[in-house]
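ok trying this again, last paste got cut off
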Amino acid sequence: MRDRRRMVYVFCMESVLNFPSYFSIVAGSQLKDAFAFLLFCIIQIDFCIVMPPIALLCLHFICSGKKYMLTKLSVNLNAVAQLRNRRDLPWPDLSLVGHIALNAGAAGLTVHPRPDERHIRRDDLLPLSALVATFPGCEYNIEGYPDSQFLELVERVKPHQVTLVPDKPEQLTSDHGWNFQIYHSFLKSVVHRLKDQGMRLSLFCDADVEMACRAAETGTDRVELYTGPYGAAYDDPEKAQSELDKLVVAAESARACGLGINAGHDLTLANITALVQSIPFLEEVSIGHSLTADSLIYGMEMAVQHYCRAIGQGGEEGFSQPALVLTGLKEFIG
């Protein structure tokens, strides 16, 4: 039995090293977690029983084209910048805070340069872009209303992703998605203009099935689901579940139309896990206010790590990688 398990161990190691795409379907970049889970199964249960369903599950994922990936965390630095702007002083240093966040496991940084520069300033954009470039695989997301000034900024910086929001200059924060029926021509023009320059486009979208489908007609790559109503129901479980159900239906609708799904606004450690579990194909969450508030308690590094675990990157909080495997297995079995 010992020799047999040693052979199995070698087989699994070679599988992980030579066929990472199989495991990335269920574990994203965290191959070690998929490997550990598989080894656990081998130790606890007979290998011949465990491997066939796992192999069939992987085949099902590949043939169906579905991805059960880890949701990526993009840390929004707006609140940090707003704290800095309370004084005519250069701290907190956005680049230093961003470096801590990325080094702690965040997959990217998000900023929203508003016309009045109440938080992010125009001269913040290039230094942060240079910072993200030092972390291979991480992404830079700039969001804002696509007026001529904003378009000039993103065309100069060329972030990985541009998220377009329908904010008026005087708005305190984003509070609704686009009406894609009214702004179809306008958005289509902007989307193609920026995509032609190599940027990925995401459009802010309410949890509305019709709007989610209409977004695809603009040519955008993704939608960012506005999760404000879900976050606002923090003290009303029934309302929170109702809003979550709307988000799930909208996400499935947008996905059926070929769009990638992001989400953001008022997401917290208390509500993010349920969102990611309910939308296992969610590609990215952008979190700023609550993460910054939590960083005052835990420190930025630990706060980022808490959120990474809460969205499924293993650990004590949130849910583990086997949960993603079981999600797919339940679907496979029917």
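PB: full thing came through this time. Strands lie at 72-76, 108-111, 139-144, 161-164, 200-205, 222-226, 260-264, 284-287.
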